Amino acid sequence: MKIIEKEIKDIDLNELSSLINTDEFTEYFLDKDREHYHLLAYLSTKFDNELIIDLGTHRGTSALALSYNKTNKVITYDVREFRGGIVHNINDIPENIKWKIKNIMDDDAFSDRENLLKSKLIFLDTAHEGDFEYD
């Protein structure tokens, strides 16, 4: 896959940014130079009708960027639900995002772990301590 910087910067996240309920996170989401959201949206355009996994939802902005290509399905996981980054009203979350509040490594998450093997893209943004990433 060839990644082209101009194409990344041409990604328009304004429509999706309207779902974010804080000015601070909207500013991060729209930042083309320092943040990763345009890259995630761009990567989503490289696949059609595929499964994308987001591990480490936190406030939901990475899942939102990954949902940019509406033909893909995004399943996003976190171990706890946050309020404040993205509006958690189901009517405001794009239809191609499925939210799961669970640890994908738990014993009851076997089918979820199988989705990892099926997905075309996995975005891993978790505790940043190395243990989870290794597992």
Question: What would you note in describing this structure?
Answer:
The longest helix has 9 residues, at 110-118. The chain is 33% helix and 15% strand. The protein has helices at 5-9, 14-17, 23-30, 37-44, 61-66, 110-118, 131-134; strands at 51-55, 73-78, 97-101, 121-124. The chain has 135 residues and is α/β, with parallel strands linked by helices. A four-stranded parallel beta sheet has the order 3-2-1-4. The chain is built from seven helices and four strands, in the order H-H-H-H-E-H-E-E-H-E-H. The radius of gyration is 14 Å and the shape is globular.
Features:
single chain; 135 residues; alpha/beta; 4-stranded parallel beta sheet; 7 helices; 33% helix; globular
Secondary structural class: alpha/beta
Query: Helical amount among residues, as a percent range?
Result: 25-40%
The main pleated sheet reads as: 4 strands, parallel
Strand content: 5-15%
